[in-house]
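Summary: Need help interpreting a holo structure output

Steps to reproduce:
1. Submit the protein chain below together with the SMILES for zinc ion.
2. Request a joint structure prediction with the ligand placed.
3. Inspect the structure token block that comes back.

Expected: a single structure record containing both the chain and the bound molecule.
Actual: see attached output.

Input attached:
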Amino acid sequence: MAFIVKKKISGNEYYYLVERNREGNKVKSKTIAYLGKTKEGAEEKMKEILKEKNVKEKDMNIEGLANFCKLKGFVFRSSDIYGGFGGFWDFGPLGVELLNNIKREWWRYFVQEKENVIGMEGSVISHPRTWKASGHITSFKDIAVVCKKCKKATKLDESEFGKVKCECGGDYLKQGVFNLLFKTNVGALNSEEAYLRGETAQSMFMNFKLIQQTSRMKLPFGIAQIGRCFRNEIAPRDFLFRCREFHIGELEFFLNPDEKKCSVLEKKHLNLKIKFLDAETQERGKDILKEVKINDLIKSKKIEEWHAYWLAEQILWLKTFELSEIKIREHTKEELSHYSSATFDIDYTFPFGSKEITGIANRGQYDLTQHQNESKQNLEIFDEKTGKKVLPKVIEPTFGIERIFLAVITKAYAYDKKRDYVVLKLPLKLSPIKAAIFPLINKPEFEKLAKEVFENLKKEFNVTYDSGGSIGRRYARNDEIGTPYCITIDGDSLRKKDVTIRNRDDTKQIRVKIKYLREVLFKLIHDEIKFKDAGVFVK
Ligand SMILES: [Zn+2]
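--- attached output ---
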């Protein structure tokens, strides 16, 4: 990681770029460059140097990733002109496209394509009694600690305090216990204290009966939602991993507590191989992964069938983005949240460590029971299968959307030796821009036709028109941000009414008639046709 260091020498300020790297247990610092005498100048210069340096670095760390995301317009610190605000991030022009595409794919997979799941969108602020009932006011807490040795401040779960030590080996000193819910006041006069939601789940529990009645759903069924959540983290860190405002995609799957059989478990779920770390192994202080099939977990009674089904579905969805470097970790008894009887984390193996990107919990009847008691409303529904009224239990797959965003970018990031720059090999469905349209030379007849192509494609896809700089420069710019196709209008295009399409991943080119372009692009993006079969190959 590189950063600016200010040195004062006989009253004058000098700025240097210093790099700090961990080598084994030691952290080594090295001055990379002199950046001048002003802070502004130093920041500008650093940007240029890091731009050169970062795109060539193969081993990415979390700071490198944050830097790449900033330089390419994906993610900025919130309120950057004021020095940022801890735990808050802004999505730039490309970032918002990628974020929306991830959300859209999530919705398609978990709502649109599932017959037994429907969606909703709840308010961020709900009746304060929501959080009393849910247990968040009493149980949603972290312990702020500081290391006695290195003085680093961080947070711990209640279950961790007294057991874990700092990275440096020092013991932690308790600073206080804090609730993670953000408080706010609603109304001006006689205002009422309320909370920003810490999860989207509660609105699905509260609306569960209304939704079941109005959409005539039969048990078992799910309600899904993607939305912003807020947690007043003591120590936000690791870029988008631990922020104070973020999106989660949550699915609450309601079923009869007596229903043990899952009717939709298929071979693709049962035979799915996973790297698994069970609770017992962790309780023995070990972290040995076992390779097992989902079916093994069911047979050994580690997991119930419906729980297993949704766990497998989560993994299968991640695989649609080629995110296969994952491991499943079972929560130990002590770690379990106040509402859960069994929880599994799905961790993605980043170059800088294994991090949880999604999880799945068995919430049982906890939440509906709590809301029933607090509201004095009967939340039981009629189960047609058994002919009896029942209070359903809940299986809850949860996804950290920002975390998936980072996993996707990390996976896509590839330094191409031959091209000597980064090619962001994003899954086509997720690429912020699907195609860039170039006139080969800036002459009116080329530009006119290129604009026509652009106007036609933009109705359906997010495309850009780019006439600045050499063709090589334009290719590079688009490869770096993950644009899968570059479409060029050249001399032949004017006569033959066709274009060349260049493929991001292998730089190969085909020629396609302009009248088929929209259809071809659609098929390419949806993987309905292979690139080499989509047009006439250019040698
Ligand atoms: Zn320490």
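--- end attachment ---

Reviewer comment: Residues 146 and 501 are 56 Å apart (CA to CA). The mean pLDDT is 91.
Status: needs-info
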